[in-house]
Amino acid sequence: MITLLPGDGIGVEVVAAARRVLDVVAPGLTYETHLIGGAAIDETGDPLPPSTLKACEGSEAILLGAVGGPKWSDPRASVRPEQGLLRLRAALGVFANLRPVRVSPALADFSPLREERVRGVDFLVVRELTGGVYFGSPRVREIVDGVPRALDTMVYTAPEVERVVEVACRFASERRGHVTSVDKANVLESSRLWRETAEEVCAKHPSIELAHQLVDSCAMRLLTHAQTFDVVVTSNLFGDILTDEAAALTGSLGVLPSASIGEGTRGLYEPVHGSAPDIAGQGLANPIGTIASAAMMLRTSLDRGDAAAAIERAIDTALASGARTKELGGDLGTKAMTNRILDSLS
Known about the structure:
Elements: E1 2-7, H1 11-25, E2 31-33, H2 38-44, H3 50-57, E3 61-66, H4 81-92, E4 96-102, H5 115-118, E5 122-128, E6 140-144, E7 147-151, H6 158-173, E8 178-183, H7 189-203, E9 209-214, H8 215-224, E10 231-234, H9 236-250, E11 257-261, E12 267-271, H10 288-300, H11 305-320, H12 334-343
Parallel strand pairs: 1-2, 1-3, 3-12, 5-10, 8-9, 8-10
Antiparallel strand pairs: 4-5, 4-11, 6-7, 11-12
C-alpha cells in the first residue's frame, strides 16, 4: 500500500498528476490518501494526525506533495506545517535524503549557466537528514547583559555519519564508483569527525573512490565543474544549501525529485519544490518533480526499476518534443504536461 500525502498548495495538484502516471505504469498498486501539514492543522489541529502516521508506518512507501503556506507561516506559532514533516521523518527513521541532479538534454540551454557547464550533469546528493544543527541541542535564545543571543549546536555521532556514508557508497557502486564527502574540516570539530568516519567507511569499499571537498569550494565547483560529481554525501545543513544551489543547474526546482530513506526499503518521496501558494489551484504547477519522485519510489522501495525507467524516459521524451510548463518558458499547465508525459510512455 502507498500512502499519498498531498499536503498544501500545489501539492494536491502534483500528487494527483503523479497518481495518473502511476496508474498507467504500475496499475496494481493500492493507495490511501491522508492529511499532513497546514491542511491537517485546519482539519484536526495537528500537522501529523495519528491516523496519518499510522498509515505511513504501515505503508510500503509514501508520496508527499508539499507543506506550508502563508496561512500558517507565523514563526511564533506553536503549531506549524513543517513540524508534521519533521515528525514524520523521525518516526519513519529516514536518515538519508537522496536528491538526484540531472540536467535533461532538452533543458541544457534553459539553465542560467552556460550550456557547456551543465550538459551531461548527472549526480546524486546524499544529505544526512536527522542530525546536525537542525536537530542538535542545546538550542538557546536569551538576553545576556542586555544583548540578544542565540545558540544552535551542530552535533554528530560516528554511527550517524557511518550509516549515511554507507548509503552513499551503495548508490555509488551502482553508478560511477566515486563519492565526494563535503565538510568544513578545516574549522569545525564535527566536520573532522565526519571526515575521519567517511574514510573509515569507504575503506571497507575498495571499489569506491573517495574524495573530500570543503563546503565553500564545493559550492563554487557545483557551478563550474558539476559534471565531475558522481555521488556527494554531506551533513544536514550543508546538504540543504548545496542542493538548492544545484537546482539552479536545471533551471527550475519544478523538475527535481527527492527521496528520504532509512535502513529498510520504505521511503518518503517528494519533489524538491515547495507549496507555491501563489499558483495553487490554478493548474499551472509543473508536475515533473513529483512524477520523477514517483519513479524513484518505484525503483527504490518497490523494486520496479522497469516502470521507473519508463517514466524517466517519458519525461525526457516529452521535454525533447518541446513540452514546457510556464516556469520552463512554455504554456502548458499541470494536466497538459502530465498528458504529454503519458503520451510519451513506451
